[in-house]
Structures are given as structure tokens and as C-alpha cells.
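In this section we walk through a basic example: taking a raw amino acid sequence and producing a predicted 3D structure, encoded as C-alpha cells. The instruction is simple. Fold the sequence below.
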Amino acid sequence: MSPTRAVAPVEVAPGVHFVEGPASNWTILAGDGTLTLVDAGYPADLDLVESSLRAVAPATGDGDARLTSVLVTHGHSDHIGTLSALRRRHGFEVFAAPAEVPNVTREQLHQVTVGDVLPHLYKPRFARWVLHAVRAGGLGDVAVADVAPLDLGASRTFSGHRVVPTAAVGHTPGHTVFALPDDDVLITGDALVTGHPTSRLDGVQMLHPIFHSDLAEAGRTYGRLVDRGARVVLPGHGPVLRR
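The resulting C-alpha cell sequence is shown next.
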């Protein structure tokens, strides 16, 4: 789980590029001469996010394609950690579900606490994950200002792709998944994952209960996502799922 290991975007559909990062994932949409980022890794992933954007830019037909939008599934530090630094280098809008905006701006905080993790630190996988999270900046100030609320259920075009944001609550109060119906792709964030550093499992799964703000609701959301058809599923943790 080294925060500096190289990562390479994988094109899972035309103009849809998935990056499996050191401990969390992000997706880049390319088209119409622009780039859209979905989630953004830990603070220490900044150089990796930047290099993946540079790698994808030629897919727009413009090697200098500009990052214009960032879509946030939820406001955990491993999904928004690079955004403030990225914004100092690029001009872009940040979007999240209305119920998630306070978590992204840190007016509220819905995230696993030290107290939640302490009872599990005797487990080697948890201990390694905590060490990585701390080294990657997970305890730092990752608040993002000026976050625009998404119109959930409404289709909108980002970088040439039709995107439909849908509520998928439980992991956090405003967790959102993003469907790309024309690409047959579903970006699930942490509502459904295919692996995690703390898990021994491979394949479709829920995160450990300590990570969810409302476990019962997270379970219901997970069940709906398991039944939801999409040719390609891009999780917040773990490898791409093709069906």
C-alpha cells in the first residue's frame, strides 16, 4: 500500500479511465476537450492523480485538456484528499450530493474515528491500513470549499459522458453512485467494493461495519447495488468488476 507506487489508468469504456490507487480508487472521464475526475484519493496521492490526468488527457484529442469538474461519491479523506491542492493548480468545480456537501466542506464529519479502529488494531491488516492512512495524510485537513450540490436522478453531461448521480446512502448520509448509462458503467464509491486493505475477501463485498455511518442503511443500499445491472462496475476500493 505504498502511496508512491506507480498507477496506470485503464480504459474500461471509450473515454472512461479507471485508476486503482494504493488504497483507494478514482475515475477519469475524458471527452469534449476536458477531463472530469470522480473521487481523488488521499492527500499523498496528489502526484499519482496528476500523472493519471496527464496520461488520459490525449484521449480527449487535446493533450492539454483541462480538468473542469470533480464528482465526489462521499467526503472521506481517501476520496477527497487531493482536491484542495489540485484546485490550486487547476480551475474546476466540485460536485456532491446535497446531503454530502457538509461532509466534504467539513461543516460536519462522518468518518471512521480512532475509537472505532482501536479495538481492531491487533489485526495485522487493520494495523497496516491505519499506518498507511496516517502516512497518506488521512488525519489532515482535507476540507473542500465551494462545493456545488448535485441534482440527484437528473442526467448531466461531464466531459462528453452522460452521468446520472443516484443516492446510495449508509456509508455516509449523502453517499452517491454515478451511472454512465451510455457506457454501461456504474461508479459505486464505497457503497459496494471489490476489496479493501482490511479485508481478506476478494470480489463484491461491503466494507467492514466500522466504516459505515448507518450500517443498516448501508446494507440495504449494498443489496440494491448487487442487483443493479451494469457491464462495468468501478468501486472505490478493489479492482474493476466486469460482468
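Looking at the output, two observations stand out. The radius of gyration is 16 Å. DSSP finds seven helices and 13 strands in the chain. In the next section we compare this with other chains.
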